[in-house]
Automatic annotation (TrEMBL), chain B:
GO biological process: transmembrane transport
Membrane-topology annotation of the record: Multi-pass membrane protein
Name under which the protein is recorded: ABC transporter permease
Organism of origin: Pseudaminobacter soli
Keyword flag Transmembrane: yes
Record localization: Cell membrane
Domain ABC transmembrane type-1: 25-221
Lineage of the species this protein comes from: Bacteria, Pseudomonadati, Pseudomonadota, Alphaproteobacteria, Hyphomicrobiales
Top-level lineage group: Bacteria
């Protein structure tokens, strides 16, 4: 047993001392969502944070459900996601210390320009989904327990429709792949605006419904509880969270634009 | 349209000497070649021993290694993830979401290939040289180094097969590496990411560069093999 352990330790030392692969000690791991990473937001704000604190932030982009699971297992120091109910559950279970709101953007319904369900230009998401189901127009769902998927299911519930049948396709994949598939089908789908704006393979898709208060999309940040996972880098993780909600961090978020369009709107409550 | 752009994109990336691309290429090669080295150190002797040793359960092991050549990368990745997770048995190592974890996953994927192909090569050679070796007083296990050396040119193919699997793989390293920008992002995970972002030209451009690297390495191995073969007469 102790032999096995020493072999493993030797192996680990050998692995971690590989030339060029040695890691800086001052880093934290953040489990976040594809929308924040793939839209380029982190690419914009993380260098500013590193410049100020010297802390490197390593981001793993997953769906919200998976990111919270990563936090539960203790494999991340901070989770930065967008599904309020699931986040509050995470804190209540004791896996997270405290949830802080950071920023928001909104969801939009995109679909083929031909608009087979006749919903273009509307601003009532629930009514639009009803029409899609009545028309039997193809709709793609993330189907991956992500924040966007949870938001979509909540909208169907409000529409009083149980989505199923040939027209409803569950893809079980990320936002980008879902948009790639939807552009080819073509199909309607729900997407966050940040991913949509930074997505480069839109094909025949365009925004058909936007501006419904129900499409509000709040992002929150939570430190993984060191009481559950003692190795969590609480100090550096907290520093990152404090910076995100500080005036400086909030400004960095607001400054990120694609083609002059702001992607995320900071709304941390002053503390 | 996307396809034509891909070649221009690939060419531009190479010509501009893009620093991020350079890092990604270096990391990809470092991870894959380290995994390949570890697999060769384990796989070559193990494969030869499996070819020559006679013990109960040998057939079972042979079939198992053959089957593991088809191990789905995503399953290998998931297994390594569960082992290395902080909540897993090896969590205390703290190497999940690091290049080390990616090396472990790729080693798991390619060792069976090297074991199985080595076993076949050595088994064939033993059939050919058994009488000679026995007359020299060599036992089966003592013959291992001789046969490995004798089969070195065929074994290069086994190593290249391992390299091919590791360098082309994305499912396992995505799970255990996390595709972290500047830390665990490799050629294949970058291609997957750019596809997700809908930047198909960039994704395909990266694919062309990866194919170019693989082609160069295989050509180098081929030429070296031929030269060595000539020198050996």
């Amino acid at each position: 047993m102790s032999f096995m352990r020493s072999v493993l330790v030797a192996g680990a030392i050998a692995l971690s001392s590989l030339p060029g692969l040695a890691s800086a000690q001052d880093f934290i791991t953040v489990a976040s969502t594809t929308s924040t990473e793939q839209s380029g937001l982190f690419g914009h704000i993380l260098p500013i944070f590193k410049e100020k604190t010297g802390i490197e932030v390593r981001v793993i982009a997953q769906g919200t459900g998976q990111a919270l699971e990563t936090g539960r297992r203790g494999d991340a120091d901070v989770v930065f996601v967008h599904a309020k109910a699931a986040e509050e559950e995470f804190v209540k279970e004791g896996f997270g210390v405290e949830r802080k709101e950071v920023m928001y953007n909104d969801f939009v319904i995109v679909g083929p320009g031909e608009d087979p369900a006749g919903i273009k230009g509307g601003n009532d998401a629930v009514a639009a989904l009803k029409k899609i189901s009545e028309a039997g127009a193809t709709f793609t769902s993330r189907g991956d327990d992500s924040g966007t998927h949870k938001a979509e299911l909540a909208l169907w519930k409000q529409a009083g429709v149980k989505p199923s049948g040939d027209w409803y396709r569950e893809l079980g994949t990320g936002m980008g792949p879902t948009l790639n598939t939807s552009a080819q089908m073509p199909a309607y789908t729900l997407t966050d605006r940040a991913t949509w704006l930074s997505f480069e393979n839109k094909g025949p898709l365009e925004i058909v419904v936007e501006g419904d208060p129900k499409l509000f999309n709040q992002y929150g940040v939570i430190l993984v509880n060191p009481a559950k996972h003692p190795h969590v880098k609480a100090e550096q993780g907290q520093a990152f969270i404090d910076w995100l909600v500080s005036p400086e961090g909030q400004k960095a978020i607001a400054d990120y634009k694609i083609n002059g369009q702001q992607l995320f709107f900071p709304n941390a409550s002053a503390s | 349209m996307q396809q034509e752009n891909a070649f221009t994109t690939a060419l531009n990336l190479i010509l501009s000497g893009d620093a991020v691309l350079g890092e990604i290429v270096v990391l990809s090669l470092a991870v894959t070649l380290t995994a390949l080295l570890v697999s060769a150190i384990i796989g070559l002797p193990l494969g030869a021993a499996l070819a020559l040793a006679r013990f109960p359960g040998r057939s079972f092991l042979v079939v198992t290694f053959n089957a593991l050549m088809g191990l789905p990368p995503v399953v290998a990745g998931l297994a390594v993830y569960l082992m290395l997770s902080r909540s897993g048995p090896l969590g205390w190592l703290g190497i999940l979401f690091s290049p080390s974890a990616m090396i472990v996953a790729q080693t798991l994927l390619i060792t069976p290939i090297i074991v199985s192909l080595t076993r076949q090569v050595v088994e064939d050679l033993w059939g050919e040289y058994e009488e000679q070796l026995r007359s020299l007083g060599s036992s089966r296990l003592q013959a291992i180094p001789t046969l490995l050396w004798d089969g070195r040119f065929s074994l290069i193919t086994a190593i290249l097969a391992g390299f091919g699997r590791a360098s082309a793989e994305v499912g396992a390293i995505l799970i255990v590496g996390g595709n972290i920008a500047g830390y665990t992002r490799t050629m294949t995970t970058a291609i997957a990411l750019e596809t997700s972002r809908g930047d198909l030209a960039l994704a395909l451009g990266l694919g062309i560069i990866l194919l170019g690297i693989t082609l160069s390495l295989n050509a180098a191995a081929y030429v070296t093999g031929r030269l060595a073969q000539k020198a050996a007469g």
